[in-house]
């Protein structure tokens, strides 16, 4: 029989820990813990499949599944010895969501289900605690009202606050049983008014409604947003976990808490977590009261503490991963409510992986797979420079919840954060965050909250996102409505307004007023180095190079482990103040002689830069691309020139001086400013293109002006000879951009080889080896790869342009309608960020195959932005490329992504050279 509902409890379970697809993470964890004999309150899991059936069947659950659920309920009642709806001794239930992948706080939960007017009396009599029973009932109506009946929470809050005011109660716990009874009566009136029906008294009906509400919450906007952010497929659905309630709020011998088997911020092996005495589970996660650290549990109940340590240690050994667990103690008895692999920061992920491997708990492969490549970003984030902090006012130290330093302008709401982040970096400053703030947290560079602990919503979500976060910064008084915050610093009250700059450090918990300077991270920390060298062992000969244009970037790239340069964009060398004039002169030149004159000035500068690159990359290949400039970027704007020409006749002395300075570098002896401007405008107009991206770019420029290619080839070889003379190994690779026809490559290669051979001959060093290859950036080049490879000694896929040209989609304009395309699900993701395997990827596969058939030793790599994006790196590995090349800071990410692809196997070895 196909099963839709899985019972667990009393040391057994229908499901087990491997069944996350059907049971969700929470359900699988409960089943596994129950099987292992751990103290889990009995219950059952309605599978994720039912969630999908529910939506297909117009938000109904077929009778056959309802019958199965009723049977599971009967089993549960038997296991616990209580019945749902029994007025004398009622069974109370929790109904919780739980998808395959954890989505903290994004979906719904209902507690204390089964309470109605009659069972509340029964609960009061049974516990001898009337106040407790009323408190449970009012919490239930409120939660059920909001989640299942879709009544605005604020309606309940208003009633509750009014009662507190009337009773002069400071804390919720100051309200008496009679106060709560009155609140319940008011709550029921709200339900009647809003739903036109009485609050449902039938517990079985409550259960169905609650389960359906959990399913419905799969499509909450915040859940949808979270899935998109985390790339969780929409069709997985959530399970609904129905479980007997245990109460952490039954007085001072009860508590509720959450914890981790290791510190999720640093990865240190310490028992880590928090608990709240006399509270229900949601109070901890919601961050409403600030809890006590778990170490204080020993003093509160030593027996419970050691039992908890023993159980969670077993859990970690069992799952072979750091566990994130929830527990409740009801009148001195411990219950485990959940366990799952804990979310952790990047630094923690690396530390836990390395230390678990050292402890023998996991092998090297598992350790390498344990860290998501994108998590490494957090180890590569900047930190504050101590000197700059000295100049700032420290506002407070809160709790360090997610590491990393961030600087930004203060926003007090999630919506403001999104809006303000378009103009400047933002720090989201809130009393606490709720799942509704997710978009603002995503837009912010960092998050600071005034209340809550390390497992509050803000902390958990920020860590998952890799955003720096400080919580519990209680010294800051925030008025979200007035958009101000005040904090007393050395007896003085400081006010922080919206838009003010603050700096926050999620590693220390410190918050400063003003803008701190940041410092680059240390890629040589022993743990990180150990982890990366472990990963590198799996990568084999697959290389990771860096895109670097100047020697300084090349040095950074080496530190991050780059094994060469995969792309040096030579035009980037010309934006420097001392070079741009020569570059402009070269572009503006109308004849070869003038152009050669300008080029002669550029040659020594290029040679110096190239020599710097070869030095930094000693022993590794350096791919240098011949000029591929969008020419217009180097020249004044046509419209600007027209305006300046128009105002010149009437300009006063001041304006004339200003214009003279502006166009100084274009002036020539004996020429008036007007003549200079006219000459400039006419050349700019000659060079004007309707579509510069498809115009005189790439190799086309070198074909029209061969002396440019010639100068660059000479500069490359002369630099290589210079460095080689010092006894250093150099491997130059000269790359021709943007070819669509092999004849373009032939033309340029001839020029390169001639200039190179001449330079080598002159130096008497014909032994120095160099390669000439091409970029594959145009579909035609990919389609004709076999003939291109007869000329090219290497291919490098320029997937920025190849994506642009294959999709006919402008790389510069796509962002304008990106959101619309993604919302309409036309593109699942940005094709300029994640390689489009189906289209662009197919061209790449074809070209690699055809290229290698024509030239078996063909070296193949990628140098578009995709070269540092984990899933694209995986694709490149599987396609049989020799290397990827990406920006220096992404080198470790690419190294890890390649290692993981290698571990997971399936590489097209047949087509690989190295
Ligand atoms: C590319 O097109 O992918 C590439 C690397 O070249 P550029 O980004 O310089 O056009
Ligand atoms: Mg390109």
Number of extended strands: 34
Strand order of the largest sheet: 15-25-24-17-18-19-20-16
Shape: elongated
Structural class: alpha/beta
Average pLDDT value?
A: 91
In whole angstroms, the N-to-C terminal distance is 53 Å
Radius of gyration, in Å, reads: 33 Å
Which kinds of small molecule does this entry bind, naming each only once? phosphoenolpyruvate, magnesium ion
Number of DSSP helical runs: 35
Parts with pLDDT < 50 across at least 5 consecutive residues: 909-914
Major β-sheet annotation: 8 strands, mixed
Kindly state the percentage of residues in helix.
40-55%
Strand content: 15-25%
Protein topology:
Layout: E1 5-9, E2 12-13, H1 20-35, E3 43-46, H2 48-56, H3 63-80, E4 83-84, E5 90-91, E6 93-99, E7 109-113, H4 117-127, H5 130-147, H6 153-166, H7 177-195, H8 203-216, H9 221-230, E8 238-244, E9 255-260, E10 272-277, H10 281-285, E11 292-293, H11 297-300, H12 302-319, E12 323-330, E13 333-341, H13 346-358, H14 364-369, E14 383-384, H15 386-390, E15 393-397, E16 399-402, E17 405-411, H16 414-420, E18 426-430, H17 438-443, E19 446-449, H18 457-465, E20 469-471, E21 477-479, E22 484-489, E23 492-497, E24 501-505, E25 510-513, E26 518-519, H19 526-539, E27 543-547, H20 551-559, E28 565-569, H21 577-588, H22 592-616, E29 621-625, H23 638-647, H24 653-662, H25 673-687, H26 699-704, H27 706-725, E30 731-736, H28 742-763, E31 771-776, H29 779-783, H30 785-791, E32 794-797, H31 799-807, H32 815-823, H33 837-854, E33 859-862, H34 870-879, E34 883-886, H35 891-904
Parallel strand pairs: 4-5, 17-18, 18-19, 19-20, 27-28, 27-34, 28-29, 29-30, 30-31, 31-32, 32-33, 33-34
Antiparallel strand pairs: 1-2, 1-3, 3-8, 6-7, 6-8, 9-10, 9-12, 10-11, 12-13, 14-26, 15-25, 16-20, 17-24, 21-22, 22-23, 24-25
The protein binds phosphoenolpyruvate and magnesium ion.
Magnesium ion (MG) is lined by residues 777, 798, 800-801.
């Amino acid at each position: 029989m196909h099963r839709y509902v899985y019972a667990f409890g009393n040391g057994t379970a229908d499901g087990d820990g491997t069944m996350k697809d059907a049971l969700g993470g929470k359900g699988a964890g409960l089943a596994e813990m129950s099987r292992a004999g751990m103290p889990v309150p009995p219950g059952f899991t309605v599978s994720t499949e039912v969630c999908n059936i529910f939506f297909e069947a117009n938000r109904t659950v077929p009778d056959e599944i309802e019958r199965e659920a009723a049977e599971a309920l009967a089993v549960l009642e038997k296991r616990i010895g209580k019945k749902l709806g029994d007025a004398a001794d009622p069974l109370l239930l929790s109904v919780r969501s739980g998808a395959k992948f954890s989505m903290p706080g994004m979906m719904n939960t209902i507690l204390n289900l089964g309470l109605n007017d009659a069972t509340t009396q029964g609960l009061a009599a049974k516990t001898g605690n009337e106040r407790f029973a009323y408190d449970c009932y009012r919490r239930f109506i409120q939660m059920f009202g909001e989640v299942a009946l879709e009544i605005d929470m604020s309606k309940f809050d208003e009633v509750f606050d009014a009662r507190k005011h009337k009773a002069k109660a400071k804390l919720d716990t100051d309200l008496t049983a009679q106060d709560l009874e009155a609140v319940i009566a008011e709550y029921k009136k709200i339900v009647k008014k809003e739903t036109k029906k009485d609050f449902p008294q039938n517990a079985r009906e409550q259960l169905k409604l609650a389960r359906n509400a959990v399913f419905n919450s799969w499509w909450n906007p915040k859940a949808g947003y979270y899935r998109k952010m985390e790339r969780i497929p929409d069709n997985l659905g959530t399970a609904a976990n129905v479980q007997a309630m245990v109460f952490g709020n039954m007085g001072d011998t009860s508590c509720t808490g959450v914890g981790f088997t290791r510190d999720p911020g640093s990865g240190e092996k310490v028992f880590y977590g928090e608990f709240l005495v006399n509270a229900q589970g949601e109070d901890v996660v919601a961050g409403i009261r600030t809890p006590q650290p778990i170490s204080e549990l020993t003093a509160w109940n030593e027996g419970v503490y050691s039992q908890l340590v023993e159980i969670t240690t077993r859990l970690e050994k069992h799952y072979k991963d750091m566990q994130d667990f929830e527990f409740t103690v009801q009148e001195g008895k411990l219950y485990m409510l959940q366990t799952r692999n804990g979310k952790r920061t990047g630094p923690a992920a690396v530390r836990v992986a390395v230390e678990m491997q050292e402890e023998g708990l996991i092998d090297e492969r598992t350790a390498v797979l344990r860290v998501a490549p994108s998590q490494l970003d957090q180890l590569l984030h900047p930190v504050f420079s101590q000197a700059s902090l000295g100049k700032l006012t420290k506002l407070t130290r809160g709790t360090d919840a997610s590491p990393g330093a961030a600087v930004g302008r203060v926003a007090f709401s999630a919506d403001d954060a999104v809006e303000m982040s378009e103009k400047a970096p933002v720090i989201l400053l809130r009393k606490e965050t709720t799942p509704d703030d997710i978009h603002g947290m995503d837009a912010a560079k960092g998050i600071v909250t005034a209340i809550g602990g390390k497992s509050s919503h803000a902390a958990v979500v920020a860590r998952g996102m890799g955003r720096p976060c400080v919580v519990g910064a209680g010294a800051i008084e925030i008025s979200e409505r007035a958009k101000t915050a005040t904090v007393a610093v050395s007896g003085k009250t400081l006010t922080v307004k919206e838009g003010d700059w603050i700096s926050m450090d999620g590693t220390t918990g410190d918050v400063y007023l003003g803008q701190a300077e940041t410092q680059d991270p240390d890629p040589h920390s022993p743990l990180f180095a150990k982890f990366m060298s472990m990963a590198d062992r799996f990568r084999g000969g697959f290389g990771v190079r860096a895109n670097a244009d100047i020697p300084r970037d090349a040095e950074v790239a080496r530190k991050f482990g780059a094994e060469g340069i995969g792309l040096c964009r030579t035009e980037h060398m010309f934006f420097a103040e001392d070079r741009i004039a020569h570059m402009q002169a070269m572009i503006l030149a109308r004849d070869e002689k003038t152009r050669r004159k300008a080029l002669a000035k550029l040659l020594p500068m290029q040679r110096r830069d190239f020599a710097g690159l070869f030095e930094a990359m000693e022993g590794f290949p350096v791919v240098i691309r011949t000029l591929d400039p969008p020419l217009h970027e180097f020249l004044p704007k046509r419209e600007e020139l027209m305006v300046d020409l128009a105002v010149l006749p009437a300009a006063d002395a001041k304006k004339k001086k200003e214009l003279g300075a502006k166009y100084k570098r274009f002036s020539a002896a004996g020429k008036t400013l007007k003549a200079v401007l006219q000459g400039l405008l006419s050349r700019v107009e000659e060079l004007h293109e309707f579509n510069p991206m498809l115009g005189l770019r790439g190799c086309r420029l070198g074909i029209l002006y061969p002396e440019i290619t010639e100068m660059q080839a000479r500069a490359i070889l002369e630099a290589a000879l210079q460095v080689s003379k010092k006894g250093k190994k150099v491997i130059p690779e000269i790359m021709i951009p943007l070819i669509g026809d092999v004849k373009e490559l032939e033309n340029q290669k001839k020029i390169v080889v001639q200039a190179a051979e001449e330079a080598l001959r002159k130096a008497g060093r014909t032994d120095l080896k160099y390669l000439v290859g091409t970029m594959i950036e145009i579909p035609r080049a990919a389609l004709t790869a076999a003939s291109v490879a007869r000329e090219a000694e290497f291919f490098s896929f320029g997937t920025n342009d190849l994506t642009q040209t294959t999709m006919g989609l402008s790389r510069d304009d796509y962002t304008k309608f990106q959101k619309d395309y993604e919302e309409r699900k036309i593109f699942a993701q940005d094709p300029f960020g994640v390689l489009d395997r189906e289209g662009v990827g197919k061209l790449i596969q074809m070209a690699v195959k055809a290229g290698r058939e024509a030239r078996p030793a063909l070296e193949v790599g990628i140098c578009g932005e995709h070269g540092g994006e984990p899933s694209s790196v995986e694709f490149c590995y599987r396609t049989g490329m020799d290397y990827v090349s990406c920006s220096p800071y992404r080198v470790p990410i690419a190294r890890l992504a390649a290692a993981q692809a290698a571990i997971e196997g399936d590489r097209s070895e047949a087509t690989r050279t190295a």
